[in-house]
Specification:
Layout: H1 4-7, H2 26-29, H3 46-68, E1 83-93, H4 108-125, E2 135-144, E3 149-159, H5 176-188, E4 196-199, E5 202-204, E6 218-222, E7 228-231, E8 245-251, E9 256-266, E10 275-279, E11 289-293, E12 296-297, E13 303-306, E14 311-317, E15 326-335, E16 341-344, E17 348-352, E18 364-371, E19 377-387, E20 401-404, E21 407-409, E22 411-420, E23 424-431, E24 441-447, E25 457-458, E26 464-465, E27 492-494, E28 500-502, H6 517-520, E29 528-530, E30 536-538, E31 569-570, E32 576-577, H7 594-597, E33 627-632, E34 637-643, E35 648-651, E36 666-670, E37 681-690, E38 704-708, E39 735-740, E40 755-761, H8 764-770, E41 779-783, E42 799-804, E43 807-816, E44 827-831, H9 832-843
Parallel strand pairs: 6-8, 16-18
Antiparallel strand pairs: 1-3, 1-4, 1-5, 2-3, 7-15, 8-14, 9-12, 9-13, 9-15, 10-11, 10-14, 17-24, 18-23, 19-22, 19-24, 20-21, 20-23, 25-26, 27-28, 29-30, 31-32, 33-34, 33-36, 34-35, 35-38, 36-37, 37-38, 39-40, 39-42, 40-41, 41-44, 42-43, 43-44
Helix pairs in contact: 4-5
Bound molecules: 4-(aminomethyl)benzoic acid.
Length: 845
């Protein structure tokens, strides 16, 4: 049996040579100036130096705030000092012949053309109504050849703190139109000898723009027929230095694109200040980002990306963390793909996004038409469909997508099966100007509608499944079609709608039949009272002062109660509250207020809660603000945890066994949605306290509390969850949510984006049956006996969050399970109510 130790332990797959632990935390680290054209101070004027230093520190502090707070890095503001906004883009020039001299900023050609263009941009920026008072300067910093010569610029604006309300005016498009109109009309004047045909502009991270004279790690490279190679500084030695900003400008011949592949990629796991970025332009504008990556990549999964045109910009930024090897990359040029897609008429075949498995290029559209003989229909299968973009929800697919029959698909699917009742379909693939991904390979096959699955059962969904899976109570087809029109066996329950379900699933408060018929016959008779464990007692025995239900639930909630049961909150003064789940609900029940005083203020609220993605799995940003990602050494995410106060986390003891016991090797990431995203809080772990009764064989007492070296700043995106009192009940059938970055399927790798799944608490008797008696009273089962939805490897230690009167409580800690999402094998969680006292003893919370 796949016991938790098979899959529940942190998996160690990386080489041992990279065991540096990062010393710097995000909010303290960067010392890079964000000012693109900042002046240097003179050491001989001491007073002046101090003053300048103060301004500089203010600016750095401000830049850090800009960098680390909020969601949108390009519109965040400084708390002190001036807020810097930088726009970058290009001007396409009508009457300029490209010269290789343009690649040298000291050349006469570069400077003379740059002077004219900068003057045009400067004078336009000085007249834009809302923005002009804050304009500092504009610089041309590069050129490229192509259908037209492009000149790349950036324009800097600074807003003093007293005018911070105007920052909202610095939107993504605020500059584009006025700049375009101003420059185009200027260039139409006969006195101007440069013709500008079009202008682009987009906000850019100020850290990424550098004036030509300030470059100190800049490489201009031309692609040629043969493969070229470049490496980050120090690649063959001690790794890349701290605080570097290196750029590689790659150019190719006209009508060519650039294929860039990282043969080796080894950078900091924390993307905050240490990352590699690839742009589909020489301008580092947000609109032109192809991808941003950090961390390590195994040699089996090279990152390979394509440009849409003859230029590409690769940037490496580092902070002051431990040194990492860096990267080795190769690139070459390929003729630009002018067409993709086509008509496929074979009865089976494949189609894939351009250059698969490299990232598809930006700005490309493909259409495939599949035509099979008119008496046949079409089914399709996509294994690994990857089209994920930061900030795009899979529901709306507003950026890159695949479209079939007016339905759009984007995001990540491990497996996508589609069936069409027609003999011709069109598949459209669209990639917009920014952020690309791996794409897909689609396999299609024609099938005969009168015998779609020879020798197998044909699901309505288009899947063919083994005949033995028919009428077994499991939804193998995904659309229940294998469970319709069945004769139920002796161990099965016949649902009112004709579906057969295992008898074990009746009366578990889960609507397995889909029509509630498996839950209907479970109610007690009219003259009976139902105990919390499901047993029925005569009505008059409830609230009679005697414990008639085995669990005492008949005396828990009574108007004139006399007995204090395990379901009642016991106030500090020893009195009992005769209301269910009375603690932390904002209502004072104990005279001494102890039912409300022991909750962390504001715990269990979801300030960012948005609507759920129906049937989807990716969590919304800030939806689970107590969720923590625990990273071990250089291995990246290993376990989950929950915030319970500024400086304490709760996790699973099994995450911290053997070599994982060393607290200094762990980092806690708070406020994280995507692994690698920069807007997080990072803390070292000072102390790991595992439950002394944790049992490695049975997983009993699978809990640990972690003390942070420095408290978290509690913010809307980083909040504690409420701890339930020992008396709190989470009844069978209650819907709760499990969250984490664990594997999306058994044996799979961790997810990049935080996943959520709605799961139901399972009756303890059923839990004991399906786990063959392996659960103890410190455990609870949650999930579905039907399988398909569950926690998995990498989710361990993370929360099982249940809502009660608008507040979220930590009902469980992901602990173990037999595999993931298997039928009759629900997830097993540490039961927090049973471990509550121990948490209090360790943390005083
Ligand atoms: C794990 O290995 C793990 N299906 C966590 C939860 C479950 C299985 C394995 C429950 O971390």
């Amino acid at each position: 049996m796949a016991r938790p130790c098979d899959s529940g332990r942190p998996q160690v797959s990386h080489k041992m040579q990279d065991l540096q632990v990062q010393e710097n935390f995000l909010p303290d680290s960067s010392t890079r100036s964000s000012k693109p054209c900042g002046k240097r101070t003179r050491p001989w004027v001491k007073v002046l130096a101090v003053l300048v230093m103060l301004v500089f520190l203010g600016a750095v502090a401000g830049v850090l705030c800009w960098y680390f707070t909020g969601d949108d890095r390009s519109t965040n503001e400084l708390q002190e000092g001036k807020a810097v906004r930088v726009y970058s883009g290009h001007l396409s020039l009508g009457n300029v012949q490209y010269s290789r001299q343009f690649e040298d900023p000291r050349s006469k050609e570069f400077r003379s053309l740059a002077g004219k263009l900068e003057q045009m941009i400067n004078s336009t920026c000085q007249t834009i109504p809302d923005l002009s008072p804050y304009f500092v300067n504009a610089r041309i910093f590069d050129y490229s050849d192509g259908a037209q010569v492009l000149a790349y610029y950036f324009a800097t604006f600074e807003v003093p703190p007293e005018d911070r309300e105007v920052l909202t005016k610095f939107s993504e498009d605020a500059l584009t139109r006025p700049l375009q109109e101003g420059i185009l009309s200027m260039s139409r004047l006969s006195t101007r000898d440069v013709i500008v045909r079009s202008v682009t502009s987009s906000l850019a991270n100020p850290d990424l723009v550098v004036a030509p004279e300030e470059r100190d790690c800049y490489h201009a490279l031309w692609a040629a027929g043969r493969l070229q190679e470049f490496t980050s500084p120090g690649y063959d030695g001690n790794g890349y230095p701290n605080n570097v900003h290196c750029q590689w400008v790659l150019r190719a011949d006209q009508d060519h694109v650039i294929y860039l592949e990282f043969q080796d990629f080894n950078t900091d796991d924390d993307c905050g200040n240490d990352f590699v970025m690839v742009h589909d332009s020489l301008s580092p504008a947000e609109d032109d980002v192809i991808t941003k990556k950090c961390g390590k990549r195994p040699s089996s999964h090279h990152l390979a990306v394509l440009s849409s045109g003859p230029v590409m910009l690769v940037t490496l930024l580092s902070d002051e963390s431990a040194r990492y090897r860096g990267f080795k990359a190769t690139f070459h040029q390929l003729p630009r793909m002018t067409q993709c897609g086509g008509t496929l008429t074979a009865i089976a075949g494949n189609f894939s996004t351009p250059y698969y498995p490299a990232f598809y290029p930006p700005n490309i559209n493909c259409v495939w038409t599949i035509k099979v003989p008119s008496d046949m229909k079409i089914r399709m299968k996509f294994e690994m469909f990857r089209m994920e973009e930061p900030g795009v929800q899979n529901r709306n697919c507003i950026k890159d997508y695949m479209e079939i029959n007016e339905k759009r698909y984007c995001g990540d699917y491990p497996l996508l099966n589609l069936k069409f009742d027609v003999s011709e379909v069109q598949i459209r693939f669209h990639s917009d100007e920014s952020h690309t991904d791996k794409g897909f390979v689609g396999k299609y096959a024609a099938f005969n509608p009168s015998n779609p699955c020879p020798g197998e059962f044909a699901c309505r969904s288009g899947l063919c499944i083994s005949q033995s899976l028919r009428c077994d109570g499991w939804n193998d087809c995904g659309d229940l079609s294998d469970e319709l029109n069945c004769h139920c066996g002796p161990d099965q329950f016949t649902c009112a709608n004709g579906i057969c379900k295992p008898k074990l699933w009746t009366c578990d408060r889960v609507n397995d039949c889909g029509d509630f018929s498996d839950e209907k016959a479970c109610e007690c008779d009219k003259d009976q009272w139902k105990c919390a464990d499901g047993n029925c007692i005569p009505k008059e025995q409830a609230c009679d002062g005697k414990l008639n239900c085995a669990d005492g639930s008949d005396e828990a909630v009574c108007e004139e109660a006399t007995v204090c049961t395990q379901f009642n909150f016991r106030c500090a003064d020893g009195t009992c509250v005769h209301r269910a789940n009375a603690e932390c609900d904002g209502q004072k029940d104990c005279d001494d207020g102890s039912d409300e005083n022991n909750c962390f203020p504001g715990c269990g609220t979801q300030p960012f809660k948005q609507s759920r993605i129906v049937g989807g799995m990716s969590a919304d940003v800030g939806e689970w603000p107590w969720q923590i990602s625990l990273h071990f050494q250089t291995y990246g995410h290993v376990c989950g945890a929950s915030v319970i106060s500024e400086d304490w986390l709760v996790s699973a003891a099994h995450c911290f066994l053997d070599m994982y016991d060393d607290s200094s090797s762990w980092l806690a990431y708070g406020g994280l949605n995507f692994q690698g995203e920069p807007t997080v809080q990072l803390r070292k772990i000072k102390q790991i306290i595992k439950h002394p009764r944790y049992n490695e064989d049975t997983y009993d007492y699978d809990i640990a509390v972690l003390r942070l070296e420095r408290p978290f700043d509690l913010r809307p995106k980083l909040q504690p969850i409420c701890l339930p009192d020992v008396s709190h009940t989470f009844p069978a059938g209650k819907s709760c949510w499990v969250t984490g970055w664990g594997a999306m399927y058994e044996g799979g790798s961790s997810s990049i984006s935080l996943q959520k799944a709605e799961v139901k608490i399972i009756n303890d008797t059923v839990c004991s049956v399906v786990t063959e008696g392996q659960v103890t009273s410190r455990m609870l089962c949650c999930g579905y006996l039907t399988g398909a939805i569950d926690a998995c490897q990498g989710d361990s230690g993370g929360p099982l969050s249940c809502q009660e009167k608008g507040k979220w409580f930590l009902a469980g800690i992901v602990s173990w399970g037999e595999g993931c999402a298997r039928k009759n094998k629900p997830g097993v969680y540490s039961r927090v109510t049973k471990l509550r006292e121990w948490i209090r003893e360790q943390t005083s919370l």
